[in-house]
Amino acid sequence: MSHEHTSFLFGFSSITIASALFLIIIFCNELCYRIGVLVQARTDDEVKALTASVQVSILGLLALLIGFTFSMSMQRFDNRSMALIDEANAIGTAILRADLLPAEQQAAIKPVMQKYLQARIEMSGVDLTLAEDRQAYSLRIAAIQAELWSLAIAASEADARPATTGAFLNSLNELIDRQSKRSALLKAHVPEPILLLLLFVIVASISMMGYSSGLSNKRVFVPLALISFLITLIVFIIIDLDRPKRGLITVDQSALVELLQKDTD
User: Fold this and answer.
1) What stretches of the chain show up as alpha helix (H) in DSSP?
2) S-S: 36 plus which of 149, 195, 215, 216, CB 3.0-4.6 Å?
3) Cα torsion for 207, 212, 214, 216, to the nearest 10°?
């Protein structure tokens, strides 16, 4: 695992975390229900009412945390999607401005641009936990960028006009900046302490509901199982949105793929 992803939860898939969470909250709910049944006879009505109030407060806190965490995760997903579109636009602009260069420089630069675009598409499909594979692609992309920059310098020596070579140099610089920004956004995740707090509050909420049911000696297993499933599903979506390279929800790569198809036509 790469050094920037040494957090505990990141090593597990969203499906694994959601499945484990569902089993844990069902177990805790049943355990707390049985505890509630055991202490029911020794608990007066005032304590039961206070327990119900605490349950409502925890559920309110849970709703707040779910909304806050989902918003963070969705914002990061949107940022990654926009970063990909921005990078595709920067690459497309560089390809178009390469047409302004002298014919000799065009013939040298365009194949390298296609190679760069292909490498970016391939790297987009590599899981962030595959550190060695991503490092290999990073080195390959850096080498291609260096090659493009060397070719651009040679083009500027052959044609120093700002409207031609200067425009291409600017677009190439933008291409590199967009790639760096997108790489940085891939490493931006919902902080693990927030996710751990969310999971803890979920377990506490369902456990309190089980305990409250035990105090009243009225089992509501089916509704609680449904609530547990829905909460687990929300957690799955939150975590899946936060994992851009794996899971069911991934950033659409069509902007780069279409650009490559258009450039090779």
Assistant:
1) 14-39, 45-97, 103-124, 131-158, 167-186, 192-216, 221-241, 254-264
2) 215
3) -170
Q: Please report how the helices 192-216 and 14-39 are oriented relative to each other, as an axis angle in degrees rounded to 10.
A: 30
Alpha-carbon gap, residue 207 to 104, rounded angstroms: 72
- The DSSP output letter for 11 is G
Using only C-alpha atoms, the chain has a radius of gyration, in whole angstroms, of 27
- pLDDT tens string 73-131: 999 999 999 999 999 999 999 998 988 888 888 888 989 999 999 999 888 877 777 77
CB 158 within 8 A of CB 105: yes
Dist CA 179 CA 158 (whole Å): 27
Give residue-wise pLDDT tens across range 149-205.
Answer: 998 888 888 877 877 888 889 999 999 999 999 988 888 888 899 999 999 999 999
Spatial separation of the C-alpha atoms in residues 46 and 141, rounded to whole Å: 67
Helix axes 167-186, 131-158, angle to 10 degrees: 170
User: Distance between CA atoms of 200 and 9, rounded to whole angstroms?
Assistant: 13
Phi-psi region of 217 (alpha: psi -120 to 50; beta: other; left: phi over 0): left
